[in-house]
Design goal:
6-stranded mixed beta barrel, elongated, alpha+beta, 8-stranded mixed β-sheet, 28 helices, 21 strands
């Protein structure tokens, strides 16, 4: 019992150490669990919401729309649970200018169901549900009416599809009709689109660099009132996918099995079948038109023949009459007595006809009219036949190849943005606790070693009395364990309640996540505390072992003073001789006690590094947009059109007179895949993964012009982020390989010389060689020459372009995009890009000036602020622990100084000067260490289409240094009263 009482008394006396260990554990556990818990809560709530609303796992789009045959084929694919055919139509309306919206039919098979937020779901024709963004922008409310106008090409299929293919469908297919929606609308509800969780009422909507919406708003309408048998898309649910978390790799693998099956067989077969349907429909229209024309011509010919027969009968009657009259006259003269009506031969009769017609103006005019009608009819027959033959010949070329686009949830801008945001934050949450753990172990070792050393005589007494070393060590082990458990328990509260609540507030400012709730993970929380318990107890065991390996007699005697020794500075006589007495004492105290030096400098350096690292991430994100859209992209405008509108788009841009120089290219959405086969075809053995890319094909004659529009600068990944950057202009695009963007190469482990698999806009795959990796921070561009594109994807027309000099070379690849440099200010360039998007020939126009100014990453900024605050708290605790340990070690020294006549302020200065010097040394070491850790984090933040090129501004170094020094000064306010309370008499009593 006395042993226990003494132990409790010792614990109470060491309450400062207890608080220090508990606070360090609290901060470490909070960082370890807090960011993880916040991201996990967001992941789980979003996954539940997607499952409840039936968000599609796979979406199939077609440039020619989807028919019932396509839907039936998709239902037969192994692994498909549900298929829902969907119809949509793009419309326009007036809302402070021309605005566009997508009329979306609410599916009847439970897929992609909008989430009702206010009002009711539409049920009748003419009723619609709108998003909150529309309510905010328009000022309308439930019950308001709206009139819309369908766009000419209303069978839009996707932002990557060829809308002209759909138009061609409408023109040639008489059996399938494009969807049509009512135009007189009434708002009955406000809903949340599960495909876009962007919060329009928050402080930050979806960041512009990841926005993929092609219209301003989405209106949801019931099937009632919707006509048309042509579907714009088909959405699928995959068997077993709902049981997996949509953000896990297992879910992606489950869905990929189905998409691979669709791509492997159904896609190719149905593309061919659909195009044949269009050809058959076109041929049928031509055959129907020929039959109708033949019928009309036959009727006209019959009419002309009847009129000509009547005319001939009239003339024949006159001929007969004249012949009879001539015969009667001859009979009267007796020339031919007894003669009857003469029989005229054909020659004579025809001569008489012509004479009679010529003698009669009326008959002459009638004959001319008949001849003219016959001539016109013959001309019409020939012209119609020629037109029909021309249409037959042009039919195959006028109907483009049908393209299917098989997409998963990653293609949804809202989904991919949320996932990339949470993944990046979770990566930070996995990296920073390591530093907290290392600092916690160091501080625990310092505190517990001092605690054990203070009780060495007591330890010797207990061991001499027969107490086991384990029983004696348990006094300190239980002390450390209790501090860790209390601090860890409080850390779990902060980690599963406080930090997640903060993160979710920030997230809800960017996204709408219904049903969001905080959840506790018993396993992760327990492991989090256990990690710090093991670390702190290991440090405590080490401290106990170091002391208890001595005999009880040695322990009960005072510890011998450290033997005097010279420090390095003493050997530099010119410097040493000029240092005052107190300065020499300070220098000896700093450098002779190596453990205290290492612990103090290491602890301060770790905290400073965390602050610098947090600020580095903030600086890096802040400069991403400027570096990409001002430095890397030299062009001011990118314009993309459909293939059939490419010529009209270029004519439109050229006629505006804003372009100073331009480069025609072909842009397709595709994929870059690295297979983990380890056979040398990948960037590194065992690497794997896929990245959505923007495939940019450059005309063979203008390969050298690419460097004028994009800064070509080879890079090689390094531990410090952007190390290994080559000279600007030293990289050239050729026919031996592709140039891959750094953002994609870093995520997939691709380097120059690697073999990757590219998928172009038609879904055709090919293995390509990577000739170089280009510096690129936002987006994943892959540049390829026209000739190498033809070699990869077997474009027969393109293969002939290198040897062909005809003017038809440009038909090999359709240059559907333009990179252009513009004149005028940034504002005028942004306005011009917006005006271009109103043109029917332009599918997308992007202004680099607008992108550079609007790039934001608000969630990362909030997390950086949280990390900097926690790092600051850790620095404060570390300095407080080290300062108190320093004072407790030197109580007799401080008492001696007081006896020698030092005033309290002089004692303060004597002690605090050492701490400030050690703090400065820690800061000096921590600043470059923070830059190093920030560079290493770029490897952890492998976000889709983003590469973090570490940038640390000088102000950030200043802030980190000033903050750490401010914490040191604050700690002095707590230490000085402790120094004042030191009693020289009791402190200098002999231990014996």
């Amino acid at each position: 019992m006395a042993f226990v009482k003494d132990m409790l008394r010792m614990w109470a006396h060491s309450w400062k150490r207890f608080i220090s260990i508990a606070m360090i554990t609290l901060l470490g556990v909070a960082v370890l669990t807090g960011i993880y818990a916040g991201c996990r809560d967001a992941f789980r709530s979003t996954d539940r919401f997607f499952d409840a609303q039936g968000l599609h796992d796979v979406q199939v789009l077609s440039t020619a729309g989807l028919s019932n045959g396509d839907i039936a084929a998709l239902r037969k694919v192994n692994g498909v649970a549900k298929v829902q055919a969907e119809r949509s139509q793009e419309v326009t309306f007036d809302l402070d200018g021309r605005k566009s919206a997508t009329m979306q039919e609410i599916g009847t098979n439970g897929i992609d169901q909008p989430y009702l937020q206010e009002g009711r779901m539409p049920k009748k024709a003419g009723e619609i549900a709108v998003t909150r963004k529309f309510i905010r922008d328009s000022g309308k409310r439930i019950g308001s009416r709206l009139t819309v106008t369908p766009e000419s090409a209303s069978s839009d299929t996707s932002d990557t599809s060829d809308t002209n293919g759909a138009d061609g469908t409408n023109e040639t297919n008489g059996t399938d009709e494009a969807p049509s929606f009512p135009t007189k609308l009434t708002i009955v509800g406000v809903v949340l689109d599960p495909q876009n969780l962007s919060n329009p009422d928050g402080y930050s909507a979806m960041t512009s660099f990841r926005s993929t919406a092609t219209t301003d708003y989405t209106f949801f309408a019931p099937s009632d009132g919707v006509t048309g048998t042509l579907y714009t898309s088909a959405t699928l649910l995959v068997k077993g996918a709902a049981a997996e978390s949509t953000f896990d790799e297992s879910y992606e693998n489950t869905v990929k099995q189905v998409t691979d099956r669709i791509d492997g067989t159904v896609k190719t077969d149905r593309q061919k079948a659909r195009r044949q349907e269009l050809l058959d429909a076109g041929n049928k229209k031509i055959a129907d038109a020929r039959a109708e024309a033949d019928k009309k011509f036959a009727d006209a010919q019959s009419q002309i023949d009847a009129n000509r027969q009547q005319f001939n009968q009239q003339v024949d009657q006159i001929v007969s009459m004249q012949a009879s009259a001539a015969a009667a006259g001859a009979a009267a003269n007796g020339a031919n007595a007894g003669a009857t009506t003469p029989q005229l031969d054909e020659t004579t009769r025809e001569t008489m006809r012509e004479t009679i017609i010529a003698a009669s103006p009326e008959l002459t005019q009638a004959k001319q009219q008949l001849d003219q009608a016959q001539s016109q009819l013959n001309e019409q027959k020939a012209s119609t036949e020629q037109t029909l033959k021309t249409k037959e010949n042009e039919l195959k070329t006028s109907i483009p190849q049908v393209r299917w686009y098989v997409q998963d949830r990653q293609s949804l801008g809202g989904f991919s943005a949320l996932k990339s945001d949470l993944d990046s934050i979770q990566s930070l949450g996995n990296a920073f606790p390591i530093v907290f753990l290392l600092v916690a172990v160091m501080m625990s070792l310092t505190a517990m070693a001092r605690m054990v050393e203070e009780d060495r005589s007591l330890i010797g007494t207990y061991v001499g009395l027969g107490y086991g070393r384990l029983a004696v060590a348990s006094r300190y082990l239980l002390f450390a364990l209790l501090a860790c458990l209390i601090g860890g328990g409080l850390g779990l509260i902060a980690g599963f309640l406080g930090i997640p609540a903060f993160l979710l507030v920030v997230l809800q400012g960017m996204y709408v996540m219904p049903g969001l709730r905080l959840e506790y993970d018993w396993l992760y929380g327990s492991l989090g505390i256990a990690l710090f318990v093991v670390g702190v107890l290991a440090a405590t065991i080490y401290a106990c072992v170091q002391e208890m390996r001595q005999t009880p007699a040695a322990l009960m005697r005072p510890k011998a003073p450290r033997a005097g020794s010279r420090i390095l500075l003493e050997r530099i006589r010119p410097v040493w001789n000029r240092i005052g007495f107190l300065g020499k004492v300070t220098a000896r105290n700093i450098f002779r006690f190596k453990s205290r030096l290492i612990m103090t400098v290491g602890g301060v350096a770790g905290c400073t590094a965390l602050i610098v690292c947090g600020l580095a991430i903030n600086d890096t994100v802040a400069d991403l947009g400027i570096k990409q859209y001002r430095d890397i992209y030299q062009y001011d405008l990118m314009v993309v059109s459909d293939d059939s509108d490419a010529s009209a788009m270029r004519t439109k841009v050229a006629s505006d007179g804003r372009v100073t120089s331009s480069l025609d290219v072909r842009i397709e959405s595709g994929d870059l895949t690295v297979a983990g086969s380890g056979d040398g075809d990948s960037g590194k053995a065992g690497s794997s993964g896929s990245e959505s890319i923007q495939l940019v094909a450059v005309p063979e004659k203008h390969l050298s012009d690419l460097g004028e529009m994009v800064t070509l600068q080879p890079v090689s990944s390094g531990i410090l982020g952007t190390s290994g950057v080559g000279k600007i202009g030293s990289l050239k695009l050729d026919d031996d390989g592709v140039i891959v963007a750094q953002s994609a190469a870093s995520a997939l482990g691709v380097k120059a010389g690697s073999k990757v698999r590219l998928t172009n806009g038609d879904g055709v795959q090919a293995t390509a060689k990577v000739s170089a990796v280009n510096r690129n921070l936002i987006g994943s561009d892959v540049y390829v020459s026209e000739t190498y594109y033809a070699k990869l994807f077997d474009s027969k027309d393109a293969k002939n372009t290198k040897n062909s000099k005809s003017s038809e070379d440009s038909e090999a690849l359709t240059w559907n995009a333009m990179l252009a440099k513009l004149s005028g200010s940034d504002t005028s360039q942004t306005d011009y890009a917006e005006s271009l998007e109103e043109d029917s020939s332009v599918m997308k126009a992007v202004s680099c000036a607008h992108m550079a100014d609007s790039f934001k990453f608000d969630l990362m900024g909030a997390v950086v602020a949280l990390i900097v605050a926690l790092a600051g708290g850790l620095a404060l605790v570390v300095l407080f622990t080290l300062a108190n340990t320093n004072v407790s070690e030197r109580v007799r020294e401080m008492a001696t100084l007081k006896v020698l006549g030092f005033f309290d302020r002089e004692v303060h200065h004597y002690v605090n000067r050492e701490m400030m010097i050690l703090t400065v040394m820690g800061v000096i070491l921590g600043l470059p260490l923070g830059r190093l850790v920030g560079g290493m984090l770029t490897m952890a933040l492998n976000m889709p289409s983003l590469y973090f090129e570490v940038e640390v501004k000088p102000l950030s170094y200043v802030i980190a240094a000033v903050a750490t020094m401010a914490f040191a000064l604050l700690v002095q306010l707590f230490v000085n009263p402790v120094l004042d309370r030191i009693d020289p008499i009791s402190s200098l009593k002999s231990v014996e």
